[in-house]
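Researcher: Re-running this chain for the archive, since the previous output was lost when a drive failed. Same request as before.
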Amino acid sequence: MPRPRPEVDRSAGQDSFLDVVTNIVGILIILVMVIGARIRHMVIEPPVAPAASGTADEVAALAATVTSAESEIDDLQVQIEEISLEASAAAEARLDLATALAAARHELDRRKGLADAAKVSAAERAVRRQSLEEQLHRCSLEARGVAEAASETHEVLAYPTPIGRTVNGDEIHFRIAEGRIAYVPLEELFELAKAHTRRHTDSLQDLSSRIVTVGPARDFTLNYVVETKVDRARGQILVRSREWVVRPVGPGVGETVADALAPTSRFRGVLGGAKPDTTVTLWCYPDSFEGYRVVRAELHRLGIPTAGRPLPEGAPIGGSTEGSKSVVQ
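Model: Regenerated structure tokens:
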């Protein structure tokens, strides 16, 4: 990059030249004034009669002096005019020089501004480049880490497309709550309810409806509403169950999901005694959805049709004559 040349202030030399010209003009003016004063104060003495020849010579000399002085005055006048012209030209030159100097300073300032802007832009590009290089280095390290990291294999369970159908065949029920799974013996409880109703038919004749409790059977009891209707024409009493609810005898009923998947668990025993086309219905509470997924996966592996019935917290297992059947997928 070429080094900038030092600035030379030329106004000082121009001022010295004008000072010299002004001094010369002043000296010439002073000389003209002195000569004019001498001429005005010259005394011409009348010629002396006895020395006539000498007086004529002096007059001639004086006339020559006057002529010479007038000639010098004319020459000085011409020089004054020339110097005035030169002074005017010098003033114009000085004005042009000052204008050129101002333009040069403006151009210099502009170039300095451009140079400063270029330096700032170069610095910004350098910072940006350094930042990009750091990002590139960091990305390279991350890519290397990903390439060298041990790959993990996750098993994804795939189930058949869920096409639902209503369960019409045999069905067994399990309750999943508090991380435990328990067999719900609905068929056994219904048989107890039928036997209880047969034994107490005479006491039910005058009741339109009542709540009856039977059990426990395998840690569950059955509460059901009995409706009776007397057909006097035929002499018959019609008895039916309108609603029923199954409740556990206490907390902690059943076995843990991990124990249920063991080969000799009660869960395996119930499944082993079921018919081939039996559907398993899982009644699940919100605190045991993870256990539900584990049990469902095992039933899917065994090829057993499974139906899910989620229950809100605190709701019992129940049904009615107006209820719906389980749907298996």
